[in-house]
Amino acid sequence: MRTIVFAGALALLGTLLGTRLAITFLVRKGYGQLIRDDGPTSHHTKRGTPTMGGLVIIVAVVGAYAISHLLTWTAPSASAVLVLFLFAGLGVVGFLDDFLKIRNQRSLGLRSKAKLLGQSLVAITFAILSLQFPDERGITPASNAISFLRDIDFLQLPVVLVIIWVMLLIAAASNGVNLTDGLDGLASGACVMIFGAYTLVNIWQFNQSCASVASAGPKCYEVRDPYDLAVVAIALAGACFGFLWWNAEPAKIFMGDTGSLSLGGALAGLAIFTRTELLLVILGGLLVIEVASVILQVGFFKATKGRRLFKMSPLHHHFELLGWQQVTIVMRFWIVAGLFVAAGLGIFYAEWVAGT
């Protein structure tokens, strides 16, 4: 448990203190956010606010994980290293996108094909490696089955389909955080709750692991490295919490695609390795709503030849154009995110209770 505590505390301090230094550096370099002209006019005041704050989150999480293991003199696990690889790898793609936006002084960074290629290469590498590294029981970080609260036995997939499924999960989660990151503190606050939930899920799975003969029950969990995944999850929650100090309205810095793509990737990685892939739809319900609002808007626009279902998508912009204050939208969306997280944890625990 000491490793978990150290990781969370170090990651929180890393972003709480490191973001202040990053703001100073980015302002000096003139690395400010570019604002779309077709967005809400209230966002124009944010033009020039430092972006790429996700770099601080990435450094804080990876640093906290490494230092916490050094302090407790414990070895890293394959599962945790792979989640961090996915987290940092998508962060690199997001950083290139952010940097090109700033250098070219336009709201578009990487071309869509280049961005998709970068995300796909990271996701495919992660998927292939996730099916390697079996432990002494033969359990690999990922499995061939689609999962909800644990693997669904009759939904076993061949390797090629597993890779495609993993790519879809990563794309959905990373784009979900990316679309949600449109108001000060909205995405970072929601991520604190979801990563906090995965910390609890991993601790519970560790305590009820099939690897522990003493506590193994009829509904034990066949998950590789649940304790070390809890270390990663709490580091992510702590880093987002510390970053929120500077990202809350009025934001002094934005995480950019560097942060949103990497955090979304980490969510997908944790869902895959904890065998809770479909549960992420509930835990990340706010992200699902934001993505769904964009899909519905585009579909309705095409079906009705120009009419709009919402004033603007993602959904938080619709409420902005209705006249809601940003802080009101963020607080209410956080409440919605918290309700989804509570529902997801309740379902996770209820399944275990019902099976014991």
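Next protein, fold it too.
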Amino acid sequence: MKYYCIGIKGTGMSTLAQILSDLGNDVSGYDDQKDYKFTQVGLEKRNIPIYYDSSMKLDKDVIVTHSMAFKPDHKEIKRVKDLGLTIKKYNEIVGDIVDLFDTIGVSGTHGKTTTSSVIKHILENTVKCNYFIGAGDGYVDKNNKYFVIESDEFNKHFLAYHPKYAVITNIEKEHLECYSGIDDIRNTFEQFANQTKEFVVACGDNEEIRKINYKKKVIFYGFNENNDIVIKNMKLTNTGSNFDLYKNDKKYGSFTVPLYGKHMVLDVTASIIVCKNLGIEEEKINELLKTFHNAKRRFAEEKVGNTIIIDDYAHHPTEINATLEAAKQKYPDKKIVAVFKPNTYSRTKDFTNEFIEVLSKADKTFLTEIDSDREKQEDYPGVSSKMITDKIKNSEIISEDKMKRLLEYKDDVICFMSCASVSHLIENLKKELN
């Protein structure tokens, strides 16, 4: 079959395009963004063409799917509609793929990508697996039994999936532009959990997760003693994290992982439980955890001279807090500088106070202006990054071409955080450093 993916350089769409190609389909795509994105790596490897204009000739049998960032009045959306082509929702196509395998659906407000990546790393190096991870990673071999998929709650996308096994890492307020509140969010996760075929692995420390009425077997994990699998003896050092797991007061295993932060220990624990329940031996799991490298744009580090540059996908207050804590764990003797690029007006408005609280924890905070690809500024009058910097003592607005301002912190840790691309900001800083 032939597929045309509009918004192909988005993390999810890029991954879908790669998987469709691996399944033997003819895939091409369109994007507005000409700047190089990390999501292009897998596309280029598969020779999937990317168009930045309407020059791609589309046959009547082409199936079109598009990113939610592309509105109905976009020129390329209008073109495919005028051609009378079949347009299928992104998550519906993914749901069709999920049903082909024994799928592990990893959901949660935060931690989906890391948890999916750990499970994928363990299974890929033992029993083999396919995967669809939102960091731009996707691969399918029809002969593999298992399929690991990051299951996103945005616009209730994951309700198109009926996995054999599911993970819920946490439930918090997020995407309030498409949910009415926390009850709506929790109820949607409940529906996802109960359309799972075998069992659910869920973080029992999370209050909203505990409120779910589970109709399937559930395995709770976390630090609290009322969980089925309890994390104990955690040690966070500048080389990684060590911890023990207990089940019914008996040791379930001792593990070491080169990741930073309490949140990473929780994500790894969920991954261990899934893999042990699929028959992977503890010794092999531990061996593979020590060689795990986190997904793209998850605490990705680069050293330029004495400057530690961290590129992280963090865009929600909880995620920003986790990234800053991880940086402090690994670099306790350095100043931590936050450079945050807000991606939506709605999230900035909904979480202004929370952003102020967590970004205040950095030694110095910079924000760019809001850069949204799916919202218009005129729909959110008065909402800007200044709402945050005005309330943080040691903070300021920085423009994309003023990275020279960061040279004052060239001996410190600079954390670039956003769900939008910050690669050009980092490149501008590196030019100044060099």
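About the second fold: The two ends are 48 Å apart (CA to CA).
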